[in-house]
Design a protein that fits this description.
mainly alpha
Length: 134
């Protein structure tokens, strides 16, 4: 009624190396993967923070990106944004990115970044509340 499967079974190993199926590919630990993900979220947050012209916050974020990546991050020039809707959208984006960074920092037990991300979330939430009250 059916044809039996005649190929060798594939063996998946968690945390281990398979003899030659991944030869030549760099292996990274879960911690390294979380560091890469965290640096990516922080770099995106840095870009939005730079656009908003928040130099002090941007410097703190840039320092953490540099620590995680081992090199200084690319920076975006401040965009003189005057449109309230665009400003609100940037603050919302920054709030969301800081939230993502907070989740990854917490799972990585990176207290410094977790505190920074929580502070940025609070600052952007305050900016959004202030914009909404006008």
């Amino acid at each position: 009624m059916y044809e039996p499967i005649r190929t060798k079974p594939v063996v998946h190993r968690v945390g281990g190396h398979h003899s030659d199926s991944h030869a030549g590919y760099p292996q990274s630990s879960r911690g390294e993967a979380l560091d890469i993900q965290l640096a990516g979220h922080l770099a995106a947050l840095l870009a939005v923070t730079d656009e908003l012209g928040l130099d002090g916050a941007a410097a703190r974020i840039a320092a953490q990106v540099a620590r995680l990546r081992g090199t200084a991050p690319a920076r975006v020039a401040h965009a003189d944004i005057t449109d309230a809707g665009e400003l609100a959208a940037l603050h919302q984006r920054a709030h969301d990115l800081a939230g993502r960074a907070l989740v990854v920092a917490a799972s990585r037990a990176d207290t410094t970044v977790a505190i920074l991300a929580a502070e940025r979330m609070d600052a952007h939430a305050a900016a959004l509340n202030l914009a909404g009250s006008h």
